[in-house]
Amino acid sequence: MNLKNNQINSMFEFVTSNYNILILDDSKSVNQILTKTFQDKGYNCFNVFTIKDAKEVLLNNEIHYVMLDINLPDGNGYELITLLEKSSVKIFVLTSESDKKFREKSYQKGILDFIVKDKNFFHKLDQITKTIENIEKNRNNTILVMEDSLVIQEQLKDVLENRYYKVQVASDSLRAEQILSEMPVDLILLDLVLKDGNGIDFLRRNNNLLINIKKIPVLVVSGHVNSEITRDVIKEGAVDVLTKPYVLEEIVLKVDLWTDYKRKESEIINSVKSLGLQKIIIEDQKKKLEKQIVLEKQINQQKEKLLMQQSKMATMGTMMENILHQWKQPLSAMSTNVSSVQLQKELDILDDETLNSSLSDMMMVIGHLGNTIDDFSNYLKPDREKVDFTIDDAITQSIILVNSQFRNENIKVIKNSLQVSLLGYKNDFIQSFLNMLNNSKDALMEIDKEERFIFIDMSTTSNNCVEVKIKDNAGGISDDIIDKIFESHFTTKDKFGGTGIGLFMTKEMIEKNMLGKLEVQNVNFDYEGSSYTGAQFTITLPIQ
Ligand SMILES: Nc1ncnc2c1ncn2[C@@H]1O[C@H](COP(=O)(O)OP(=O)(O)OP(=O)(O)O)[C@@H](O)[C@H]1O
Ligand SMILES: [Mg+2]
Fold first, then answer.
1. Which of 219, 246, 273 is the last residue in one of the domains?
2. Domain holding 237: CATH number?
3. Are 456 and 417 in contact, with CB atoms under 8 Å apart?
4. How far is the CA of 491 from the centre of ligand 1 (A)?
5. Are residues 216 and 197 in the same domain?
6. Residues in the chain, pLDDT under 70
7. Fewest CB within 10 A of the end CB: N or C in the chain?
8. Does some domain include residue 240?
């Protein structure tokens, strides 16, 4: 009949193992109420109505607790208290009579509680389960009994050990001080009469250590309690004063109360400490995280630079095609011119006027070729400084860069104009715009050559922004991908070498670098009597 050792596995919650509880009560309804209460807590119940049956159950089962009625059909329940006095079975007396003497006698024999079945009985049931749960925790608590009488020492030791407390006894201050220096003590029961002096002197001498440092509750016991003694011991730091001769129930209740209080206090202190520790850990992690964020930011910046470079390289390919287009015609014009001059010279019909006019024509063409190169090289220059530029200029420059190719593919660009100046990264803007022009061109290549349009519409908004809408009539972007087109590496042009960086970079440049906004939607519109559908990108940039 031994109790299993349970462990405290959370702050205030105590999980008991499956206790076996014997309920001995001749009332069927009390039996039922108790069974329900304990079963709800996960305990096993044995119900009996007579002492005879109770003994039978006790013999054949490992019983941990007994709920004991006193007046029973076949005798007095006190018989069982005596029978189980030295065993590990713990008894709660549940009776309808409250006899003071009998009560104290029962405590002397080690019962855990004496409960009167009155109108507060239901509330008291709670107390029983709480006591069962708490008593296990007592195993970790040491009580120091400072008492000169050996008889009382023994009695207190018995009662307290019966509730699983560890008990140390000292008949004098010297021994008490030794115990206190050797082990943790959770509560002191201090008799004012000690073998080597007065309990108050002991308290006074050790006040700082006991009360301030170790914070041990001291319950003073005295044969003569009057208001002066109470005042003096409380002033010296004791938490309560009890009168001798003892009422065991009072001692037990107060010891339970103060140890429980201490336990909760130290649990709170521990949780505060662990919170403090957690705070340090969190702060440490925060610092590490901040470092990581800085590092990641640097890596991202590098990545962004790389993507930007990649994107520029991709547009450069298109640019080279454009240069080729733009140079083809003037170069062939020049070659015709050179051949014609050569022929005239051979035929000896070349006069100065013709030569000069041909040369100045060629100079003009060379100038034009040079301008084209300048346009591209300006665009390719990295610009990390904000400059004033008009949105109209930047858009016109982007169109110039793709114009000859667009002309070739019969793509007409229809644009209004707007003279508004912006402070920002002009080349970034040109590149963004080129990305969108090229996307429209790619989409338009899929439709009839006769009707390929790109519309560019610039306006200012009431909240001091410039709004540029660029739309085409290539049919729009299908609904299932329209939310993804700004993601990096999203492309539907894998087969044609699309990288999927264009719109990602464009959005980054417009929104992060220029603090604007880039949005897309499909639109239906009419142009010169025909209805069209296409993707429309809207760039909004603050004028400031
Ligand atoms: N005007 C448009 N009409 C229809 N689809 C479009 C249009 N603009 C963009 N898209 C869709 O958005 C996708 C992503 O465009 P994005 O410019 O980011 O990459 P890409 O053009 O595929 O490749 P690249 O990196 O070479 O530009 C395109 O693959 C295309 O499916
Ligand atoms: Mg693209």
1. 246
2. 3.40.50.2300
3. no
4. 6
5. yes
6. 1-17, 318-319, 321-322, 325-326, 329, 375-384
7. C
8. yes
Structurally, the chain folds into a number of domains equal to: 3
Q: If residue 495 lies in a helix (H) or strand (E), which one and from where to where? A: none
pLDDT of residue 17: 54
State the pLDDT at residue 5.
Answer: 39
Q: If you measure from the C-alpha of residue 470 to the centroid of ligand 1, how many angstroms do you get, rounded to a whole number? A: 14
Ligand 2 centroid – CA 416 distance (Å):
24
What is the reported pLDDT for 382?
60
Give pLDDT, residue 2.
39
Nearest CA to ligand 1 atom 8: 439
Evaluate whether residue 358 is within a structural domain.
no
Write the DSSP symbol of residue 237: T
DSSP state of 181: H
For position 542, what pLDDT does the model report?
93
Tell me what pLDDT residue 478 has: 95
For the stretch 79-107, pLDDT in tens is: 999 999 888 899 999 988 878 888 888 98
Ligand that lies nearest to the alpha carbon of residue 535, given by its number in the listed order: 1
- pLDDT at residue 378 in the model: 65
Per-residue pLDDT of 295-312, as tens digits, reads 898 888 888 777 777 777
- Give me ligand 2 centre to Cα 544, in Å: 29
Same structural domain, 403 and 497: yes
- Encoded tokens for 491: 């492309």
Best residue for ligand 1 mutational test, from 473, 491, 537 (most atoms within 8 Å of Cβ): 491
Spatial CB neighbours of 538, under 8 Å, sequence gap ≥ 6:
467, 468, 469, 517, 518, 519, 520, 521
Tokens 């054949």: give the residue.
60
pLDDT at 287: 92
Q: Say if 92 falls within a structural domain.
A: yes
Among all bound ligands, the one having the nearest atom to the CA of 310 is: 1
530-542 sheet: strands from edge to edge: 411-415, 452-460, 465-472, 530-542, 517-527
Q: Do 240 and 208 fall into the same domain? A: yes
Distance CA(170)–CA(182), nearest Å, equals: 13
Given 136, 159, 181, the domain boundary residue is: 136
Q: Are residues 88 and 226 in the same domain?
A: no
- Residue 179: inside a domain: yes
The secondary structure of 83-107 as a DSSP string is HTTTSS-EEEEEES---HHHHHHHH
Closest ligand 1 atom to residue 503 Cα is 18
Domain that holds residue 169: 141-246
Which ligand has an atom closest to residue 311 CA? 1
- Atom 5 of ligand 1: nearest residue by CA position: 477
Residues lining ligand 1, CB < 6 A?
314, 435, 439-440, 443, 472, 474, 477, 485, 490-493, 498-504, 535
